[in-house]
Amino acid sequence: MTRMAAVLIPLAALRAAAISLTASAVCKTAVDCSLGGKCVEGRCQCYPIWQGAKCEMLAIGEASNVSTNGYRNPEGASWGGSVIRADDGSYHMFVSFISRDCGLNSWKFNSVIHHAVSANPDGPYSFKDEVLSEFAHNPTITRAPDGTYLLYHIGETLSADERSLYLRDCRKGRHAEPKRSANSGGPANFDGRIRIAFSKSLDGPWDLLNNGKPIMRPRGGEHWDTAVTNPAPLMLKNGSVFLYYRGDDRFHPDFTGKRHRKIGAFFAQSWRGPYHRIRDTPITPSGEDPVVFANSDGSGYHMIFENKFKGIVGQHAFSVDGKFWQIVEDPAYDLLASWDGGSSTKLERRERPQFLLDEHGEPLYLFNAVQGSRSRGEGRSAVQSTWTMAAPLGFRLPMASGTPPRRPEIETATE
Ligand SMILES: *[C@@H]1O[C@H](CO)[C@@H](O)[C@H](O)[C@H]1NC(C)=O
Ligand SMILES: *[C@@H]1O[C@H](CO)[C@@H](O)[C@H](O)[C@H]1NC(C)=O
């Protein structure tokens, strides 16, 4: 090889690389990488928990053995666990449980909030105690910078009379129906009362902020959020909090019977409130069950939400300031759960996303309320068929829908 040739070949290669870089550049800034990575020479270099050309998808790993994964209560149906690590290194889950042998369909008003603990982040979690009685649902645990644990949820403590009227008792077989339907009369909106229980310890005792008075009420009239539910706090380092929620139009005067579920946002200078809507309009055009976290370097915020009515199991949105959100159209994940050892299950339902965060606030595990596949004999109405699944983040797996596995490494211009 002559000296001349040795110089020419790399130059030609460089020119070819420059052309392909221009043709296939996907990003100019981190915003083009969904704030889930850095833009390096036109390509997104994703942080470990994200994958895809634009860091749009969660990189979900194989979940631990299904027989010990997450939380299953052998006594009945549970739904939507939210987990936090205690100072002593144990893991604490707050999760809805449906009382009186009823299934998930009776969540309104049979839901209570249970506390379960585990030595491992992904389980198995064991029941420890009941934290809030009927009616309490949609728990999300977080911690304020002052050390106080906050259990955001929806609920209303039912009086003895209300319990006898509105609770279903599935131990009574065909007499299980409550005397009054959950949707009739006064308490139709009990599931629209966002409250906070707080404690210095994850083992309680828990107090209700403002004696359980809702921190935010739904709006009447012509608004998009005539009902509010699914509270999702984003605690800022200075103690202020964004509180995302799902609103729907079921009490709108023109309501036709088809709900429009969208996500909105409140803000408060401190977790004690007062909470105000950041604006009159929703932050997403559809969706529910939001969960939010911040990049540990302060460069942005991420939301994962469930959007099954639009056919998306887990959807990703991101924001620089917590107020204006950009929606990623491609799904962040789907119904396929992959297990340690190589098997996988297409779940029937995968909802209520929650993250276990590390000490920097970065997600380590994705938790979902799930219902197993029908082929495994776990029918939709079976009392014990709903549970909370944990899956590690930072691994890269293909998606169920036939989407090809994405390249994990960043392609550089010289490849
Ligand atoms: C999961 O655990 C069960 C019960 O211990 C065991 O029988 C089974 O072989 C395990 N599955 C895998 C894939 O390791
Ligand atoms: C905390 O930071 C946010 C965002 O910069 C700001 O809007 C808010 O006023 C701050 N809160 C306090 C208590 O300083």
Automatic annotation (TrEMBL):
Residue ranges of every copy of the Epidermal growth factor-like domain listed in the record: 27-55
Signal peptide: 1-18
UniProt keyword list: Disulfide bond, Signal
Family matches, as InterPro entries: EGF_extracell, Glyco_hydro_beta-prop_sf
Identification of the protein by name: Epidermal growth factor-like domain-containing protein
Taxonomic source organism: Prorocentrum cordatum
